[in-house]
C-alpha cells in the first residue's frame, strides 16, 4: 500500500514519534511525504520515503494529485487546529473523500488506521487499483 505523510510544523515531532512507534508496520509499505516531514521521519526511522516538495512549495498539491489519481491508499496528515489557514487540510480531506482514501488528521485516528493496516482491514483498497498496480 502507498501511504502519504504530511504534518504541519508544530506536529512534525509527533509524526516522527508516531513513525518510530509504528516503524515495523510502516516498513512493509511504500511511503511518500512532503519534503521536511519525510526527511525528519527517514532520519529518525531509517524508512525509505519518497519525498515531494515542501508544503509551502506545493508538496501537498503533488500528493493531492496522486490521491486524485487513486495512487495513495492511506493519508496521515497531522494538522494543527490552531493554525489560521487550514485550507491545505481541507483540500486533502476532500480529495480523500472523493477517492475513498482513509485519512487521519490526528494521532488517535492514525493509530486506528495503522492497526487496521496491520490486520489487513484496508486490503479492499487493492480492488480499486488497475490490475498492473496491484501488489
Could you describe the 3D structure shown?
The protein has six helices and five strands. The N and C termini lie close together (8 Å). The protein is of the alpha/beta class and 135 residues long. The protein has a single domain, classed as Methylglyoxal synthase-like domain (Rossmann fold). Helices cover 45% and strands 16% of the residues. Strands 3-2-1-4-5 form a five-stranded parallel sheet, with helices on both faces.
Low-pLDDT ranges: none
Distance between the termini: 8 Å
Protein structure class: alpha/beta
User: How would you describe the oligomerization state of the chains in this entry?
Assistant: single chain
Kindly provide the radius of gyration, computed on alpha-carbon positions and rounded to a whole number of angstroms: 14 Å
Give the CATH topology.
Answer: Rossmann fold
| Number of DSSP strand runs | 5
CATH homologous superfamily identity: Methylglyoxal synthase-like domain
Which strand order do you get reading across the main beta sheet? 3-2-1-4-5
Q: What is the N-to-C succession of helices and strands?
A: EHHEHEHEHEH
The proportion of strand residues reads 15-25%
Shape: globular
